[in-house]
Structures are given as C-alpha cells and as structure tokens.
Design brief:
Layout lengths: L5 H6 L1 H18 L4 H24 L4 H12 L12 H13 L34 H13 L3 H20 L2 H4 L3 H7 L1 H9 L4 H16 L3 H12 L9 H7 L2 H11 L1 H6 L11 H9 L6 H7 L4 H22 L6 H12 L11 H5 L4 H10 L7 H7 L6 H24 L1
C-alpha cells in the first residue's frame, strides 16, 4: 500500500493524470474530429495507464481503491459527447418509446407519432426498429424513466464496469491475476462505457458471473446469469454448448432450466411478431466493419454473401473442434470467441469487451493487444461525421490485426509447449 509520504504521493500522480488525459482525448474529438492528434493523446493516455498498472501491482493497491478510481475517472466522461459512436442515442430513445406505451421492436425512430421529437433525430438508421434483446430494452426503459439523458445511461454502464472489476478481482482463480489490471487500465474499458456508453459491459458482467457459478458447479445460477447475458446481447449464446459440457448430467437440467428465462423476457414484446428479429436479420446480412478474414475473403474475389457463408462454415468447424476435442480446456471460451471475432464481418471495438473475462487468464497479451489497438479503427468516424460515409484505412487494420495475431500465436504456441 502507498504511504502518505512525498514519494507515495508522487506514485499517485498517474492516477490523478488519467481523468485529465481521458477528457483531453474526448475534447480532441468533440470540438473537431481530427483523428491524428487524438491518436497522439491516446498514446499518452496508454502510457499513463501502464504506469498506473505498474504502481498498482508493485504496491498492491486494494480493490476498493481501484473501484473508486474507475468511478472517479469515468465521471467526467459521462458528460462528454459520445462522438465515437451514436448507439447510445438509440438506447435512450428506445427507453422513451417504451415509457410512452410503444413496442420498440415495431416502432422505428422515424415513426410518425414522434415527428415533433428531437432526440430521435440523433438516432442512426431511423427506419430500423430495435435490434437489442429484451433485457437491454428493459434496462433502457428503467434508466429513461429516471432520466432521459445520456449521462444517466452511461452511469449505469460505468457502474457495471466497476462491478466487473469487483467480480473478477474476487475470483482470481477463474479469471487470473491479469484480470484486474486489464479491466482497470486498458483504455477501451472506460472509453466504451463511460464515454461512448455501450451496453455490452452489462452482458459482460453477467457472463463473468455465469462463469464463476459454472466453475462452482451451480447449474441453475449459471443458467440464469447466462440467460441474462444473452438477453443483453445475443453474442454469448455461442457458449451454451460449452456450459452444457462442463456440467454433470445431474446439473445440466437446472442449467437448461435457467436458460428458459430468455424466451420469458421476450414475452412482453411478442406482439411485434415478425418484427421482433427484423433489425438483427438486417444487420447480420448487410453490415461490415473491421473484419480481418472477411476482408481477406473479399480481396480474394469472394462476394460479400459468399464470404459470410464460407467463414460461417469455418467458424462452425472451429466450434465443433472445440466442443469435441477441447471442451474441458480452460481456454475454450476464449478460443471460441476469438475465432468468432476472426471470421466476423463486423468487429466494433466494443465487441472486444467480451474478451476480457474470457482471455485475461490464459491469453492476457492477446486480450490487451486486441482491445488496445482497436481504438485506431475509429479513424472511420472522420468520414461518418462529415458526410455519413465509412472509409476504412488498411494501415490501421494491419496494425490492429498484426499486433493481435502476433500476440495470439506467441501465447498459443507457449501454451502448447507447456
């Protein structure tokens, strides 16, 4: 622990500087979106957070201190304009829609009933209704009932980030010693929660808790928590077979019973009928951003649909290999999600929050490299803010995936050699 001495106070300077650097980064992009200067600030911020991690490790700073520091550092970001993404406007709007008695799954933002509103004008793709699963919608509704504001929604996500830190810190046998520094000091964690305000952190928290109960052989609790995670974002549904294989036959039935919460949460929105999954189907078929193998397939001459089919088959084979031959290995959850990220046409930076509880123990370098380098893909926002066009730069993709796949191969080979 750091003592109340001059040297001890000096050690705390990186922790004091971090909130200022986060706000500086936000101001570089809010006033005028120029990515190059922001990237320089991001590097300074990363260096400062690395110092924080070093000080925290050598001085064994307690979790209560790191939790309060995360909340303190994230607080000013709650009031910064989320220029890196406009998803949070949809979150708040869909909460408003529900509180006015409408079903968000069949009521797009440009619905005639809301012609005189202003908030829905900030929502991207206003002709598309809700895409997020039912627990997300209930969260949007609850927060919007308290306050129809971006800071309120982001505050809920920041609280979940603090909760994730506590869960992973108290279960180091599950998540490893690298979990705390990754959650606390990888810039993406605060950027995507307190600043951009992405709901993935809610699902990640439930997934981490589900893993804790899984390793404790608690079937019903694990099933309920995984169901809650899937009901925030559909992503963790790919882990269901791995959970099933983990449990003995006696505990599989309670686990599966817990998963029944998923359809139950959809019931309040069932009157949307075929519109319930319309937005998800549209997104999965047509959207593409920052894919690695997907982009390689396009460069090789495949059509977008052919590339999706081919890579979907490859992922199915990879998943089958993990289910059959590595279903008892501790790294199976990470390898499954990492494989999905490798073949996916869409890899937004906030999708990588899911890697943290899965890779912190066995693939910490890969987890850090992927999450850290993903920030550079935000250069596309220059074109999006200017004229609503996306222009990805190959240099940044090479940087991101070069660092990520190099770290993965290094750690994978080392694990095979042990």
């Amino acid at each position: 622990m750091i003592g109340a001495t001059p040297w001890g106070l000096i050690k705390l300077l990186p922790f004091v500087a971090a909130p200022l650097l986060f706000v500086w980064l936000a101001s570089e992009l809010v006033v005028e979106f120029q990515f190059a200067p922001a990237a320089v600030v991001y590097l300074l911020l990363s260096a400062d957070l690395a110092l924080c991690a070093l000080v925290a490790s050598r001085n064994k700073l307690p979790i209560w201190f790191l939790t309060l520091w995360i909340l303190f550092t994230g607080l000013p970001l709650l009031f910064c304009d989320p220029v890196l993404s406009d998803d949070i406007y949809r979150y708040v709007w869909e909460g408003v829609v529900q509180n006015r008695g409408y079903n968000p799954y069949d009521t797009p933002p440009n619905h005639p009933a809301f012609d005189r509103e202003t908030l829905n004008k900030r929502v991207a793709f206003p002709d598309i209704p809700a895409i997020y699963p039912p627990l997300s919608q209930l969260l949007f509704r609850a927060v919007s009932a308290i306050s129809v504001s971006l800071p309120a929604m982001k505050a809920a996500f920041l609280a979940c980030l603090a909760g994730l830190l506590v869960v992973m810190a108290r279960n180091r046998s599950v998540f490893g010693d690298s979990a705390v520094p990754i959650v606390a000091f990888v810039p993406l964690m605060l950027i995507e929660t307190a600043w951009s305000g992405h709901l993935d952190i809610v699902g990640v928290l439930f997934l981490a808790a589900a893993l804790v109960y899984m390793y404790a052989d608690k079937g019903i609790q694990s099933g309920i928590l995984l169901a809650l995670s899937v009901s925030v974002k559909i992503i963790p549904i790919i882990f269901v077979p791995l959970f099933i294989f983990h449990f003995s036959k006696k505990r599989r039935l309670p686990f599966l019973a817990g998963l029944l919460l998923i359809p139950l949460l959809y019931l309040p929105f069932a009157d949307a009928g075929s519109w319930l999954f319309f937005a998800f189907k549209n997104y999965s078929q047509h959207w593409a951003f920052n894919g690695s193998f997907y982009r390689a397939a396009l460069l090789a001459g495949a059509s977008p649909m052919d590339a999706r089919v081919i890579l979907g088959v490859l992922f199915a084979l990879w998943a089958l290999y993990l289910f059959v031959y590595r279903r008892n290995s501790e790294d199976r959850f990470f390898l499954l999600y990492f494989g999905l990220a490798a073949v996916s046409p869409v890899v937004w930076p906030w999708y990588l929050l899911w890697l943290v509880p899965l890779g912190a123990k066995h693939f910490p370098k890969t987890t850090v490299m992927f999450t850290w380098s993903s920030f550079f893909t935000y250069q596309v926002m220059e074109g999006w803010i200017e004229d609503r066009t996306f222009m990805e730069f190959r240099t940044y993709r090479i940087l991101e995936y070069g660092l990520t796949y190099s770290a993965f191969l290094y750690e994978f080979i080392r694990r095979r050699a042990k």
